[in-house]
Specification:
Strand content: 15-25%
Distance between the termini: 54 Å
Number of strands: 6
Strand order of the largest sheet: 1-4
Shape: elongated
């Protein structure tokens, strides 16, 4: 039987990452893919889960759930909306970056504008 103290409230992104870890995924990349987040957001979430003692980094880059992280009951609340330039960042947007870039090009744009609009690196914009 679960204790009331074993109930943890997490935001959606934290809950998704903890579920990925509970299912056996241990690298940032595999957790990011499973949770549908970018690597920067996953790094922030994993640090938060570590501070809450729900997950721990083993070695250089392998994550696993702690005893509390494995057994706790999770209640989920929505992620706070983080906006920059009218776009929401953190969640992976469906479709390839190339498709999103083509959709965004309704007029000539500089690389810096595309970086901000698409939420990718300058190198990725250059590649495309």
């Amino acid at each position: 039987m679960q204790n009331v103290s074993d109930e943890v409230t997490l935001i959606e992104s934290q809950a998704a990452c903890l579920e990925a870890i509970r299912s056996g995924l241990d690298s940032k990349t595999s957790i990011a893919i499973s949770a549908g987040l970018d690597l920067k957001a996953v790094a922030e979430v994993l640090n938060a889960l570590g501070r809450a003692r729900l997950a721990a980094c083993k070695g250089r880059s392998h994550w696993q759930a702690t005893k509390l992280g494995q057994s706790c009951v999770i209640s989920v609340i929505p992620d706070p909306e983080r906006r920059k330039g009218g776009k929401t960042y953190g969640k992976v947007i469906a479709g390839s970056t190339a498709e999103r870039m083509l959709d965004a090009l309704d007029r000539p744009m500089r690389g810096a504008e595309l970086v901000e609009l698409l939420g990718v690196t300058p190198q990725r914009v250059h590649q495309l």
